[in-house]
Here is the input.
Amino acid sequence: MSAEPFALDIGRASLAGLEMGEGLAVVFLHAGVCDKRMWLSQMEAVADEGWHAIAYDRRGYGETVSADEAFNHLDDLEAVLDRLGIHAAVLVGCSMGGGLAVDFALRHPGRVIGLVLIGTSVTGSPWTATDVERMIEAAEEDAYERGDWDMLNRVQAHEWLDGPRAQSGRVSGPARELFLDMNALALNKPPLTLEEERPSAWRRVAEVGAPTLLLVGDEDFTALIERHDYLSEEMPNAFAAVLEGVAHIPSIERPDLVNSMLLEFLDAIGGEGDDEDLDEDDGDEE
Here is the structure.
């Protein structure tokens, strides 16, 4: 099954996306060092099992183009769903994409069938780092301040693909090539300076009642592993698992593992996507 491209004009942006399959919607939200291509294996897997897979590049990433205008990724996600005629969906997010999914679930609980959050960010969450992690963060800051985007890309591949405590180059081959290409596109895009700040969700995660699969790699940043543990305790309908031997982008490092866990989760919640039940339950919260 091949993915069909689409483009949606929202404000002065043209958001580029892919979709495949039919059925209940599964919307994939990419990490801040990737684009929609990080999900190609997962999209194919869920489409083959009777789901409608959708992924798009947010402003500042991939094939999406945008003028430097005031915007909010949360409003863009809502507009994408509305334009595609999707009332409710399963949201699958990694890192910043996961943070967006959490924010959307808090604002529109009736539009979220379930959540899959991988190494997720949470708006307003704390951050701590070990000494080793601070060293690589310092290398990242140095490359950024010098405007050396090629070096910054390589440092971020170490941080996010290999893992901050792992040997640089631990992940090689097509996965590394894809990461470097996705992140290079984002690093070289014109800056967007007018993104609207979203309110903190950190103290509200217990309000997210949708069934949630929490995943984190044991090679990821310590703060993200600690956050994973906190969310597993706070979110009332969460199932949590730590993935051994992978870092922040397991969808391209170990697609087989992610696909199997994602499909198991979707199979478990598939009966909960009845449109009439969702219509009765719909509501917006700010």
